[in-house]
């Protein structure tokens, strides 16, 4: 990503830092950044803020102060936490500066004098004693020391951009949208057009237009957060009556530290709604002390014994509840919930007493379905499990029937002509997510609901009858149960985003299980890098089923010719047999394909049972006519990294003054897509556009520490969990492609290149445009496989191979940390990388390995180029010894990639690429042997130590 936009915000406006003499204090009357009349996405805003903090920190002395303001539920706290995790700085929450128990959304309830004094002390280099507010005690009970040496401090709060604070802030950020906009959309949907948007805002958020919105317009970085409640990070719950686990609960709560909470939960029915209105349309408000939390309806999925909920609550002021009641919402159910909970690793166990029911329930909660289920087994709790909400239990006790069941199917079948009118989803045709001018918006960006109407929580799935079975099915009509061909899902014409698509996918599976029974076979198709594999595994985590990748059905003879994107590379005979066995509920053997060796390495048994009657097949050709006719649910996914690569090529073309359409680029880079993949996506029951940005998004970023200090294998083993330890060896070649005409100021820069990795004969694009902060490299966790024709397409568009790196890597991991030891060609000492999602865990591992003081944030390309003699160093990155070998690679890719499927491809033995790979393999075999010997010896030593320890314990 080029940093031109970040540089623009420093050029003019406000206080011109570059023309005024520097001062020791940043408490000038205005900020160093100019105020931009633009707004950006949440991901782009996160990236801009981190880059702006880094650049400002280099250009000024003293503390850098950041204010992040906006309405409740907009996402400002999430942004502050993500940026703080990268920068490593403290966050001053304005919640801790409350005065008494007044509504926190009222500016009079904030102690601005103390906050200003704390900020001024920090700016002047003094440590500050900051308050901590106890919401249970409803007063300040503690304080903590904030050290001025932190370098950066973030102020997070509704009034973080207030006039009393603005002169102390170097960077001002406003965040709007999120669930704040979702509530406006929901109320507008419930009320209709009888009230204007301004009237609704003044009713629900009475302080917004008067006290909050004017401050937001003083921000330099303005973020419009389009977040909706998401099942991507769902919470999994198991619930039973406490009597079912009374022994275990007493044991658990006796050993652990217990946290007690008391809540009042209220459900508000929309105005003019009948008593039979679905509870999914109700608004839930939870009062905890002086805080109020709101959730839009009973958004949840029930799958077997599990209750699955999105993280959908957000804090609102007390006046918001009063505003909803004034608009006609009525409290139909209210009850008290007393909770005692303990933490066990990554989940919590709670005893919850509901006063209206007069009963106590045990609830296990966690973000991983398998972990929650395993804990229940460990505690010997077998149920009976309760999947109804407390609201449903209360309504049933009152004699009101269960209200959130799906609506009855229409008696008149939907016309089968509906499928013919569906258009293929084309998010790859959508322009890049760039900043938008305010005048292009129909409403001010600070208060415009992001949707014209509230999307229903319940699925809109309907069934159509089918009197015939398509002729191109893999399994004949005689082989299939006739009852399963009577009902089929009616496709949803409109495409949807990934969050909505995930919810609809799970609801479609549940509808099929209820109406057609077991088994349900799902197919998820789309181009490589679109996100279909991620979606499949998220669905499987929710439903608790198996995912089968079509890559396991590759024919070894086809893979040897690098035809991964060819439909003919799939073993359709075996796939047909496996699907037939699944349909007949018989055990079947699914192949396992080893992509490193290009051969089938074995089989694993798959059986569909009543307990888990779902199987998901995912792959590029999962919706091909010869496959999809045998499946129950067809899901198409487009966008993601696939779209990112097309946008990247288009951006590079624009930089050299050559304009190309996305269609032209796609036909060159993904020649198989429009002809063989896209036509099948139009028939999907559900079409999902994945807007994920692999460069800007902070989601699942990896924290990386890199060092060339020598570390022994035994030391690495001591850092990782031996119970979950596994290791592997890889050898790879990284090729750097740069578009002809793009010039670099100085040495070759990674940001000007597209990096293609060749690993065991397989090609992948590595998306690595990291943020470097201190010793850490924070990089996106995104790679995706491409075919050799994609690499050839890039070369045909004018990209040149300007550098390459050969390396071999030993990889050790335990599920939380990954330690990689890379041996680079022509670099004498190996480099060690510690990678993980948790920054503290990565840092602790580095300290355990005694790497402090030896870290580098340089890329391997920089390291290799710096080792070149001055006479051989050039901006191209290629020296004489590399040129010939790199040219061989390019010629092979062009010849192999441009050949048609009908032409005979070069043999594996004579290809230049394989010669390089075999050369690497020969070198790595020696390292592998040493690795195996070390593993055996170390295992023997550890076994001896454990045995001796057990012997000593028995003696004692």
Automatic annotation (TrEMBL):
Entry's Gene Ontology molecular function annotations: ATP binding; kinase activity
InterPro entries according to UniProt: AAA+_ATPase (IPR003593), CYTH-like_dom_sf (IPR033469), P-loop_NTPase (IPR027417), PRK/URK (IPR006083)
SMART domains the record matches: AAA
Superkingdom to which the source organism belongs: Eukaryota
Keywords: Membrane, Transmembrane, Transmembrane helix
AAA+ ATPase domain ranges (all copies): 62-211, 518-671
Pfam families per UniProt: PRK
Positions of transmembrane segments: 930-951
Listed name of the protein: AAA+ ATPase domain-containing protein
Lineage of producing organism: Eukaryota, Viridiplantae, Streptophyta, Embryophyta, Tracheophyta
């Amino acid at each position: 990503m080029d940093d031109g936009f970040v540089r623009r915000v420093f050029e003019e406006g406000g206080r011109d830092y570059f023309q005024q003499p520097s001062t020791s204090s940043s408490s000038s009357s205005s900020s160093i950044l100019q105020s931009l009349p633009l707004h950006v996405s949440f991901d782009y805003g996160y990236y801009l803020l981190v880059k702006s903090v880094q650049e400002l920190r280099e250009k000024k002395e003293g503390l850098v102060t950041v204010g992040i303001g906006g309405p409740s539920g907009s996402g400002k706290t999430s942004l502050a936490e993500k940026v703080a995790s990268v920068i490593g700085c403290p966050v001053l929450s304005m919640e801790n500066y409350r005065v008494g128990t007044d509504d926190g959304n009222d500016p009079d309830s904030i102690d601005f004098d103390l906050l200003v004094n704390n900020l001024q002390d920090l700016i002047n280099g003094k440590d500050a004693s900051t308050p901590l507010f106890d919401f249970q005690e409803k007063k300040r009970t503690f304080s903590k020391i904030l050290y001025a040496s932190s370098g950066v401090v973030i102020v997070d709060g509704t009034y973080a951009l207030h006039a009393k604070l603005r002169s102390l802030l170097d960077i001002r950020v406003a965040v709007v949208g999120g669930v704040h906009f979702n509530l406006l959309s929901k109320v507008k949907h419930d009320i209709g057009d009888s009230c204007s948007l301004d009237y609704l805002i003044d009713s629900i958020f009475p302080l917004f237009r008067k006290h909050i919105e004017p401050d937001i317009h003083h921000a330099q970085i303005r973020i419009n957060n389009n977040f909706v409640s998401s099942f991507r990070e769902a919470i999994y719950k198991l619930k039973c009556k406490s009597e079912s686990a009374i022994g275990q609960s007493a044991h658990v709560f006796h050993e652990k530290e217990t946290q007690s909470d008391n809540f009042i939960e209220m459900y508000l029915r929309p105005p003019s709604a009948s008593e039979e209105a679905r509870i999914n349309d109700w608004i839930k408000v939870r009062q905890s002390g002086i805080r109020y939390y709101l959730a839009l309806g009973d958004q949840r999925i029930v799958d077997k014994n599990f209750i699955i909920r999105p993280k959908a609550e957000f804090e609102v002021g007390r006046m918001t509840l009063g505003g909803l009641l004034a608009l006609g919402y009525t409290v139909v159910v209210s009850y008290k919930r007393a909770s005692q909970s303990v933490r066990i690793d990554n989940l919590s166990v709670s005893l919850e007493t509901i006063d209206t029911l007069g009963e106590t329930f045990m609830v296990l909660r966690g973000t991983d379905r398998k972990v929650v289920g395993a804990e229940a087994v460990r505690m010997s709790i077998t149920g009976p499990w309760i999947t109804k909400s407390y609201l449903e239990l209360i309504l049933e006790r009152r004699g009101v029937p269960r209200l959130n069941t799906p609506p009855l199917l229409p008696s008149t079948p939907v016309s089968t002509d509906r499928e013919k009118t569906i258009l293929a989803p084309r998010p790859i045709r959508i322009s890049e997510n760039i900043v938008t001018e305010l005048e292009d918006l129909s409403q001010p960006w600070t208060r415009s609901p992001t949707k014209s109407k509230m999307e229903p929580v319940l699925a809109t799935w309907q069934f159509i009858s089918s009197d015939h079975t398509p002729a191109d099915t893999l399994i004949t009509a005689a082989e299939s149960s006739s009852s399963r061909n009577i009902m089929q899902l009616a496709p949803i014409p409109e495409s949807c985003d990934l969050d909505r698509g995930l919810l609809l996918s799970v609801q479609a599976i549940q509808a099929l299980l209820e109406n057609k029974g077991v088994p349900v076979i799902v197919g998820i198709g789309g181009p490589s890098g679109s996100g279909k594999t991620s979606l499949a595994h998220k669905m499987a985590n929710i439903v608790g089923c198996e995912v089968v990748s079509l890559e396991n059905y590759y024919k070894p003879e086809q893979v040897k010719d690098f035809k991964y994107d060819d439909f003919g590379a799939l073993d359709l005979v075996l796939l047909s047999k496996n699907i037939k066995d699944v349909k007949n509920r018989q055990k079947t053997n699914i192949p396992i394909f080893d992509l490193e060796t290009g051969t089938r390495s074995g089989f694993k048994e798959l059986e569909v049972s009543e307990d888990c009657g779902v199987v998901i097949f995912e792959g590029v050709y999962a919706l091909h006519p010869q496959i999809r006719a045998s499946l129950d649910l067809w899901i198409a996914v487009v966008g993601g990294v696939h779209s990112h690569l097309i946008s990247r090529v288009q951006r590079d073309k624009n930089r050299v003054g050559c304009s190309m359409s996305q269609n032209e680029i796609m036909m060159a880079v993904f020649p198989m897509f429009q002809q063989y993949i896209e036509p099948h996506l139009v028939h999907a029951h559900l079409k999902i556009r994945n807007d994920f940005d692999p460069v800007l998004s902070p989601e699942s970023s990896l924290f990386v520490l890199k060092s060339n200090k020598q570390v022994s294998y035994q030391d690495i083993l001591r850092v990782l969990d031996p119970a979950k330890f596994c290791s592997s060896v890889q050898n790879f070649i990284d090729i750097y492609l740069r578009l002809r005409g793009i010039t670099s100021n100085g040495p070759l820069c990674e940001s000007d290149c597209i990096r293609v990795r060749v690993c065991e004969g397989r090609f992948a694009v590595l998306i690595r445009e990291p943020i470097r902060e201190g010793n850490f490299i924070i990089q996106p966790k995104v790679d995706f496989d491409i075919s050799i024709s994609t690499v050839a397409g890039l070369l045909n568009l004018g990209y040149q191979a300007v550098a390459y790196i050969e390396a071999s890597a030993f990889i050790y991991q335990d599920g939380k940390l990954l330690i990689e030891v890379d041996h680079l060609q022509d670099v004498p000492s190996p480099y060690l990388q510690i990678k993980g999602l948790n920054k503290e865990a990565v840092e602790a591992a580095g300290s355990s390995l005694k790497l402090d003081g030896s870290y580098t944030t340089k890329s391997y390309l920089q390291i290799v180029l710096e080792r070149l003699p001055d006479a051989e160093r050039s901006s191209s990155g290629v020296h004489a010894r590399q040129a010939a070998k790199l040219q061989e690679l390019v010629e092979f890719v062009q010849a192999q990639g441009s050949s048609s499927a009908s032409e005979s491809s070069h043999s594996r033995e004579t290809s230049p690429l394989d010669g390089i790979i075999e050369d690497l393999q020969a070198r790595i075999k020696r390292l592998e042997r040493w690795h195996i010997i070390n593993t055996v010896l170390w295992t023997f030593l550890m076994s001896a130590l454990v045995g001796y320890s057990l012997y000593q314990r028995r003696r004692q």
